[in-house]
Amino acid sequence: MSSSQEFFTAYDALLARWPTGTAEIDVPTPYGTTRVHAYGPADATPVLLLHGGGSTGVVWFANATALGTHHRVLAVDILGDAGHSVPGGRPLRTTTDLMAWLDALLDGLTVSRAHLLGHSYGGWIALTYALHAARRVDRLVLLDPTQCFANFRPGFLLRSLPVLLRPTRARAHAYLDRETAGTDTDLGWKRVYALAVSGFANRKLVVGRRPDPTALSVPLLVLLAGRSDAHDAAKVAARARKAVPDARIEILAELTHFAMPTAIPTQTNQRITDFLADNQEKQAAPGAV
User: Fold this and answer.
1) Sign of dihedral through CA atoms 11, 62, 268, 252?
2) Tell me: the pLDDT tens digits for 74-110?
3) Is residue 284 pLDDT above 90, yes or no?
4) Rg for the chain (alpha carbons), in Å?
5) How far apart are the first and last CA of the chain?
6) SS3 assignment for the chain
7) Taking 50 as the threshold, does the pLDDT of residue 213 lie above it?
8) Contact (Cβ atoms closer than 8 angstroms) between residue 25 and residue 35
9) CB atoms near residue 41 (< 10 Å)
10) β-strand 45-50 against 23-29: which pairing, if any?
């Protein structure tokens, strides 16, 4: 079996753990076709899920049921990363391109406004988009976001470099084992990540400068991994509170960066759904944005 076949076999195994009724949608955009996993009431407020690098949209299998009870879950395979999204047409190279791709994706899904939820790299995309198009974002949820409120720890980058520069399945597995030690991070997802990193040499993630969160105008929830090696959670929390004083910020002490979102999903889901449930009150409040 080729590495590509192994990857999609592992990918499909995670997709099979999504709730019954999940639909697969391919959305054409000027930058290529984007795969979206959709679940929940079609007429409910959408929540767009943006995964971390290499995780793919199927990583949200443990969150889809809870989030899809009262929302329309739309989990994306980020264009340029591993998965079923296929680049084509205009090249996706800059942050401006990335924002235009998301604009086109929401248009293609006929979504005028949505909640945004992102983990890690997906958190950076979500925050950047909320600043780019606040009119289209109801609420923003960031799970241990990177390059949003602080830079990476140098040690984290050094440990990541061998996986990024000379990716192999064994090296990716060893890296994840270290970064998720002591957590119940899902083994099926770890397999998908290792195969994505080692089998998709042409992955091209768009990266850009840190956004300015002080300009954020939508309600924000930040859930940080207390044992994250990517950054110091306490420092990130302090900077986030200073930048966005009204934000809800919580540190989940037992989690590491890569343990989100598959570890302790019940706790994470409860915090997210409680936050999103306040949306109706926000919309009814005088002067609400």
Assistant:
1) negative
2) 999 999 999 999 999 999 999 999 999 999 999 999 9
3) no
4) 18
5) 52
6) CCHHHHHHHHHHHHHCCCCCCCEEEEEEECCEEEEEEEECCCCCEEEEEECCCCCCHHHHHHCHHHHCCCEEEEEECCCCCCCCCEECCCCCCCHHHHHHHHHHHHHHCCCCCEEEEEECHHHHHHHHHHHHCHHHEEEEEEECCCCCCCCCCHHHHHHHHHHHHCCCHHHHHHHHHHHCCCCCCCHHHHHHHHHHHHHCCCCCCCCCCCCCHHHCCCCEEEEEECCCCCCCHHHHHHHHHHHCCCCEEEEECCCCHHHCCCCCHHHHHHHHHHHHHCHHHHHHCCCCC
7) yes
8) yes
9) 12
10) unpaired
Looking at residue 278, what is its pLDDT?
82
Tokens found for residue 251: 């540190």
Q: How far apart are CA 10 and CA 42, in angstroms?
A: 28
Phi, psi of 196, rounded to the nearest 5 degrees: -65, -45
Q: How is residue 212 written in tokens? A: 């300015």
Strands 86-87 and 32-39: antiparallel
Phi, psi of 44 (to 5 degrees): -85, 165
User: What are the residues facing 23 on neighbouring strands?
Assistant: 38
Give which of 29, 174, 9 is closest to 101, Cα–Cα: 29
For residue 40, give the nearest of 6, 80, 74 by alpha carbon: 74
Instruction: Encode pLDDT of 232-250 as tens digits.
Output: 999 999 999 999 999 999 9
Summarize pLDDT for 178-212 with one digit per residue, the tens: 999 999 999 999 999 999 998 886 788 999 999 99
CA 267 – CA 211 distance, rounded (Å): 28
Q: Is the pLDDT of residue 288 over 80?
A: no
Closest CA to 54 of 12, 82, 90: 82
Global pTM value = 0.94
